[in-house]
Amino acid sequence: MTKYDVIIVGGGAAGFFAAINIAELNPQLKVAILERGKEGLQKVKISGGGRCNVTHAEFIPSELVLNYPRGEKELLGPFHQFMTGDTIQWFDDRGVELKIEEDGRMFPITNSSQTIIDCFLTQAKKHNVDVLYNHALKFVKHLENHWVLETSQGEFVSKKLMMATGSNPKIWKLLEHLGHTIAQPVPSLFTFDIKDERIKDIPGVVALDVAIQVVDTNLYSEGPLLITHVGMSAPSILKLSAFGAIELAQRNYDFEIEINFIKQSFDDCMERLKDLKQNLAKKTVFKSAQFDLPKRLWQKLVIASQMTNETRWADLNKSQLEALASQLTQAVFHVTGKSTFKEEFVTAGGINLKEVNFKTFESRLHENLYFAGEILNIDAVTGGFNFQNAWSSAYLVAKAISTLDK
Predict the structure, then answer these.
(1) DSSP of 267-312, one letter per residue?
(2) Please, are residues 183 and 27 in contact by the beta-carbon 8 Å criterion?
(3) What is the pTM of this model?
């Protein structure tokens, strides 16, 4: 039976971040990471299309928490302790410079996730953190003042245990045996599958600023919209998928959305179209894209409004004007399913947040049991926010563990 002062189960972002900080803050502690796979940090590797979206350039805690459909209230305190600026400084101190892109996402200036992976592996080695691969956790129990872990490679014992396994049903099951409650996981970041003539054959088209509502709900979002081969994506859709994760799962991903492509009221749109009818009288509607909409999308909406590609503005009747205004401001699409967003699989679900002390991320049920990252019922919209949760929670665990043992 191998003994450690601290064992961290999960060789992902939160696990490595916690282990390195524990070892730095208290070098006397013997720290190990148990990773079930043959290599760790795989989610870091694929994040941001292989560039690793490390965090987001939002520096006000009360604004940052608004990006978490689950965890908004609980993360406010932790973000006051370890925030985006601390993340940037942490990586900079270890030779990794980050850059801010136009949409606020932050990446290493190398544009490679390998930079982050190399940083973690180098720091873990430097601070004598044992990283043990191919160690799948099979059983865990609490005996007196220590934890006993049975893995596929043997037994381990430690005084303190941190679980950072992300969305792992097997680990959640083990934690249920310890008395913790698990909110059942459902997909959180996904794109919408839609079959509709209005978006057929125009994948890659982007409407820069739309408003979307899930019909018969309060789910609403704004932002860019991307038409894909199978439906719709981009921030406006992904935000709906995150905030609507539970409700959309209950609907079996079969629902309707209403899109306002131009973010104007129906009446204002009608007035604008009447002006265009006068000013562009001899031109065809089909070839006269308006409202800064992409040409191919405009043409699809025109055809859906009882017109041909030869219809002139001067010839539009009231019914056609209303039909076009309706397509522009209140177009309804039927969603029939979901697809994973790129390779980034995020779930809503995990350990009940009421069972965690968010000053230290320690279990309220078991002393010396800590959690960090997506193992908790916390998730975020796309843009680096899930990683910021990992850094903040892992750092506070490290601070708690290292301080207690000094």
Answers:
(1) HHHHHHHHHHHHHTTTSBSTT---TT--HHHHHHHHHTTT--TT-B
(2) no
(3) 0.91
